[in-house]
Design brief:
By secondary structure, the protein is of the alpha/beta class. The protein is 38% helix and 12% strand. It contains 14 helices and 10 strands. An 8-stranded mixed β-sheet has the order 1-2-5-6-7-8-9-10, sandwiched between helices. Strands 3-4 form a two-stranded parallel sheet. Strand 8, helix 12 and strand 9 form a beta-alpha-beta unit. Helix 7 runs parallel beside helix 8, helix 8 runs parallel beside helix 9 and helix 9 crosses helix 11. The longest helix is centred in the C-terminal third of the chain and has 15 residues. It is globular and about 55 Å long. The relative contact order is 0.13.
Length: 360
């Protein structure tokens, strides 16, 4: 099945009148036809990171001011936390020690509380070096009431955009794909207008599992490559890999072309500008339409160390690059996470526009 997405746009000079080209030498024509590309723009314009924000051997970096967040407080925060405990639900906000939990759960300036529900329990069968979620070779079986309880919680919060994610469940024959799909169906059964994003594992590369979730009624299919190709071995569990993740994203788009697809990259683990650009281009070639870039933050002293704190100016630079590559939406900032501000207005408007078109 042919992909319905466009290829990345290359920054080549506009072609002038043919009679002017006739006067050029073969070498000059070659230069016009083959460059400059976006890689030249990145090489010449990417902001550099000051030395004091890069880790030297044996050194622990001090947290820069732009990454310091407030302690979670407020009525919304405590109400949402109690509601989750009553229904025996987990959130990636807590398990992954997300720095934005105070803003998202507390509601922020607009007093709209959001949370990312983590289905399939809180114990992961993998052990990625960046992640603080608990690990186990044999986690407890999934709670059969979780899909219904998740739908109840979402209805009680009055949300119009929700995110479901999960731990990896390599112990299950389908990696938990049907549990994901059932949860989406329960949410849509309660309110079909709710927009649902699923941030899924890779299901060991089983594309039938990907298709099951893609056809469940969700609106956004998200899966994170996490880091550049050359650092996968350092950052992720050996059972995860770059090509496998790209195949998940590409297949979701192929089986359900009207889905919005989304992925995320962590910066600050030792990647180069060239590698980040290649990752963005690979994601775009896989049909990914929304991408987020955020700062990796070491959750405990036993986890992967931060190699550098990327400046806000550098994140803004990558946002501009993402826009030039043709992503519908690029969120890039130190505190941006894959499910941070998931109900961002632009993504909601794209989804609603596509829904309206499909009904005509």
């Amino acid at each position: 099945m042919a992909n319905s997405f466009s290829k990345p746009r290359r920054l080549t000079p506009a072609i002038v009148e043919s009679n002017r080209l006739d006067s050029l030498s073969p070498d000059q024509r070659h230069l016009i036809a083959n460059g400059p590309g976006l890689e030249h723009f990145v090489a010449d314009n990417a902001p550099t990171t000051p030395d004091f924000l890069k880790r030297k051997k044996g050194q622990r970096l001090r947290l820069p001011e732009w990454l310091k967040t407030d302690i979670p407080i407020g009525k919304n925060y405590h109400r949402l936390k109690q509601n989750l405990r009553d229904l025996k639900l987990h959130t990636v906000c807590e398990e992954a020690k997300c720095p934005n939990i105070g803003e998202c759960w507390g509601g922020g300036e607009h007093q709209t509380a959001t949370a990312t529900i983590m289905v399939l329990g809180d114990q992961c069968t993998r052990g990625c070096r960046f992640c603080s979620v608990k690990t186990s070779r044999a986690p407890p079986p999934p709670d059969p009431n979780e899909p219904v309880n998740t739908a109840i919680a979402i209805a009680a919060w009055g949300l119009d955009y929700v995110v479901l994610t999960s731990v990896d469940r390599d112990d299950l024959s389908d990696g938990g794909a049907e549990h994901f799909a059932e949860t989406v169906r329960e949410i849509k059964k309660g309110n079909s207008s709710i927009l649902v994003e699923c941030l899924t594992p890779d299901f060991r590369g089983d594309l039938d599992c990907v298709a099951n979730v893609a056809h469940s009624g969700l609106d956004v299919y998200a899966h994170n490559v996490e880091t550049v190709a050359d650092l996968q071995w350092l950052v992720r569990d050996p059972r995860a890999n770059y090509k496998q993740s790209l195949s998940v994203l590409e297949h979701a788009k192929q089986v359900k072309p009207d889905l919005v697809t989304k992925s995320s990259i962590m910066l600050g683990v030792g990647e180069t500008d060239t590698q980040v650009l290649q990752t963005l281009e690979d994601l775009r070639n896989a049909g990914v339409e929304c991408v987020t870039l955020g700062q990796y933050m070491q959750p405990t002293k036993w986890h992967l160390k931060v190699k550098e704190y990327v400046t806000p100016e550098k994140f803004k630079f990558w946002e501009d690059v993402g826009n030039k590559l043709g992503f519908l939406y690029t969120a890039s900032g130190p505190l941006v996470r894959s499910s941070y501000k998931a109900g961002e207005f632009f993504i909601k408007s794209v989804l609603k526009e596509r829904r309206a078109e499909s009904n005509n």
